[in-house]
Amino acid sequence: MTRAIIAAADWTLGVETAAGAPTGIYSAVCLACGAQAQPTDNERLPVEVWALKHTGRNPTHRQFKATAENFWRVTPAEDNPYRASDAQTPT
Ligand SMILES: [Zn+2]
């Protein structure tokens, strides 16, 4: 977690932990032809397998741009006045 002081209020940056939020979304694009793997939530293995199979079918296609998306949430720190109001409001 990262802590920063912004506009005189303390905020904390962390990983999004809301129900249903993926820990990551993984994908890859072939740099030779632009073919794209089906993005997957939480697991990168299916994308890796897709890349291997893609090269197996197209032996000259060996470079990929892999993408991993992560989600963050900023929350008020203990001394931040938004903490009390957030506690009363469902997110
Ligand atoms: Zn390709």
Strand order of the largest sheet: 1-2-6
Residue-averaged pLDDT: 89
Largest sheet entry: 3 strands, antiparallel
Helix content class:
10-25%
| SS element count, helices | 2
Poorly predicted ranges? none
Radius of gyration: 20 Å
Bound molecules: zinc ion
Helix-and-strand structural type: alpha+beta
Shape: elongated
* Strand and helix order: EEEEHEEH
Distance between the termini: 20 Å
Which range does the strand content fall in?
25-35%
Number of strands: 6
InterPro entries: DUF7848
Domain DUF7848: 1-78
Protein name: DUF7848 domain-containing protein
List the helices and strands and how they pair.
Layout: E1 2-6, E2 9-15, E3 25-30, E4 40-41, H1 45-57, E5 64-69, E6 72-76, H2 82-88
Antiparallel strand pairs: 1-2, 2-6, 3-4, 3-5
Bound molecules: zinc ion (ZN).
Keywords:
3-stranded antiparallel beta sheet; alpha+beta; DUF7848 domain-containing protein; single chain; DUF7848; binds zinc ion
Q: How would you describe this structure to a colleague?
A:
With about 90 residues, the protein is of the alpha+beta class. The chain has a domain at about 20-85. Helix content is about 20%, strand content about 35%. It has two helices and six strands, in the order ββββαββα. It has helices at about 45-55, 80-90; strands at about 1-5, 10-15, 25-30, 40, 65-70, 70-75. The strands form two sheets. It has a three-stranded antiparallel β-sheet. The protein has a three-stranded antiparallel β-sheet with strand order 4-3-5, covered by helices on one side. A hairpin with a 2-residue loop joins strand 1 and strand 2 (about 10-15). Zinc ion binds near residues 35 and 61. It comes from Streptomyces sp. R39. This is DUF7848 domain-containing protein.
